[in-house]
Write a structure and sequence with these properties.
FH2_Formin_sf; 52% helix; flat; FH2 domain-containing protein; mainly alpha; FH2_Formin; 19 helices; 507 residues
Length: 507
């Protein structure tokens, strides 16, 4: 305020002077001044790299860049404190062209006409849900045109051979599972020329509704292309089981193998609680023979080192066989093994269930087709189903006979209770394989080794090399062991019996 000449106080306007920025610290650079503003342009954000124009309604919508802005205060050393004008110049128009949100293409006149035609076309309400419709569309994909399928079911020309097997089974399942849908479509009264009003799966259901007896015809077709085709194979496998069981019981070699194994085991177990066994669970007990190995690793005969008990049993069988070589016995064992392998490929319980299923389906199909109006095609299909009934009846007899043979043979061999036929035959096949290998390792009989040009007496008893079977029968600690000695000594003058009789003189 200034004072005039009259002494009164007069207000005098003061000149406003912009304050200078505070002095910067030593060694630091002051931030650059913001660029001048223009109308319609906002100042750049702090630390920004360019200017952003005010949003204009006519500007295209651009794709957003989802990056991570920093909201905290920038340190003095941040790169974003650099001069924004150092950024390279950008072509905003080019960015807008390349990164504008694409607008949906205008529908062409032709496509628009097709869509309008589809929307205006009248359709029957879909009776199937989306998932069921998709599954049936896949199942019916190999079927012919619905009208052609209708002709096939009405005339039965080359039915069911003219259709894919899977398609026939799918149609048969749909006729029963989608019975309500078939009835609902039939009530619509759709004619052949109006099938385009239905979706593809519903068209095939329409065929099932308008064709007389379609369900029973498809039941006959599904039987012929399905379970009936398996009857010959099941019949053949059932016969294999019967033949294998009969071969086991009639094999003299198998009987001698079982009894010789029992005698050898009783000799080894004579001092244990398992001594004097009268019977064995077969074939499980026979599989233990190969597991038991000889402890005479220091034997003079190198070929006898590490031999199993099965090797001793096999040697005894060869030495006691008259007129038969180890190769002959091996061939017989291989035949038994083949029979066991063939018999294990089927479960009689499954075969019996399949037989009952075929009988039930065949009887139902035959009764149903007999009620349809008779013609040549119907009679031909009915005769085919009747033949399946007869074949299934014969298969039932074979399955029953095979079960009786199996039960008898399992009792004969003292099989463990509740064992399945597949497991039982597989164990027998494994033992026969082990026995065949043991016969392949057999040495020449003792009589041929002890015989020379001068005869058996030319070699002293103490110089004879005992065979593995002689080691088994030399110990007579049980009745079965003595029986084995008597059988082995009757075959050769210088064989097992000669070695066992010479043993006391060496003591």
């Amino acid at each position: 305020m200034a004072q005039g000449s009259s002494g009164a106080d007069v207000d005098v306007p003061r000149r406003i002077v912009a304050k200078a920025p505070p002095p910067s610290k030593a060694g630091s650079r002051a931030p650059p001044l913001p660029p001048p503003r223009r109308p319609g342009v906002l100042p750049p954000p702090f630390g920004g790299l360019g200017r952003r124009p005010v949003a204009d309604g006519s500007a295209p919508k651009l794709k957003g860049l989802f990056w991570f802005p920093v909201k905290e205060a920038l340190p003095e050393s941040s790169v974003f404190r650099e001069d924004p004008n150092r950024a390279a110049r950008l072509d905003a128009k080019a960015l807008e062209r390349h990164f504008a949100i694409s607008q949906p293409k205008q529908m062409s006149a032709r496509v628009k006409a097709v869509e309008e035609d589809r929307s205006s076309r009248k359709k029957v309400l879909r009776v199937l849900d989306e998932k069921t419709s998709q599954l049936l569309a896949i199942a019916f994909s190999r079927l012919p045109d619905p009208l052609k399928l209708l002709h096939i079911l009405q005339t039965l020309e080359d039915f069911p051979g003219c259709l894919p097997q899977e398609a026939v089974r799918s149609l048969h399942e749909a006729s029963s599972e989608q019975a309500k849908a078939v009835e609902e479509i039939t009530r619509q009264g759709i004619q052949e020329g109006e099938l385009e009003r239905l979706d593809q799966p519903e068209r095939y259901l329409w065929v099932l509704g308008v064709c007389e007896g379609a369900a029973i015809k498809l039941a006959c077709g599904a039987l012929l292309v399905g379970p009936a085709r398996e009857l010959p194979e099941i019949k053949s496998k059932s016969e294999r089981i019967s033949r294998a069981c009969e071969a086991f019981r009639r094999s003299e070699l198998l009987v001698r193998t079982i009894l010789t194994s029992l005698a050898a085991g009783n000799i080894l177990n004579r001092t244990s609680v398992r001594a004097n066994a009268r019977a064995l669970v077969l074939p499980d007990s026979l599989l233990k023979l190969e597991e038991l190995r000889s402890s005479q690793d220091d034997a003079e005969d190198v070929s006898a080192r590490g031999s199993s008990l099965l090797d001793f049993v096999a040697q005894a069988l060869v030495d006691d066989s008259v007129g038969r070589s180890a190769q002959d016995l091996r061939q017989e064992v291989e035949a038994l093994r083949t029979a066991a392998l063939d018999a294990r490929t089927i479960s009689l319980d499954d075969a019996e269930k399949h037989y009952q299923q075929v009988i039930n389906v065949a009887c139902h199909a035959h009764n149903g087709i007999s009620n349809l109006p008779s013609n040549r095609a119907i009679e031909r299909l009915a005769n085919s189903v009747l033949a399946i009934c007869e074949e299934a009846g014969q298969m039932g007899i074979l399955v029953k006979h095979a079960k009786e043979e199996l039960e008898e043979t399992q009792k004969w061999s003292q099989a463990k209770p509740n064992v399945g036929s597949e497991e039982w035959f597989a164990d027998w096949a494994r033992f026969f394989e082990q026995l065949a290998v043991a016969f392949g390792r057999i040495r020449a009989p003792a009589v041929s080794r002890g015989t020379s040009a001068a005869g058996p007496a030319s070699a002293p008893a103490s110089a004879r090399t005992p065979s593995p079977s002689a080691v088994v029968v030399a110990v007579t600690g049980s009745d079965s062991g003595e029986a084995a000695v008597s059988r082995s000594s009757s075959g050769a003058s210088a064989g097992v019996g000669g070695w066992s009789r010479a043993r006391p003189s060496t003591q």
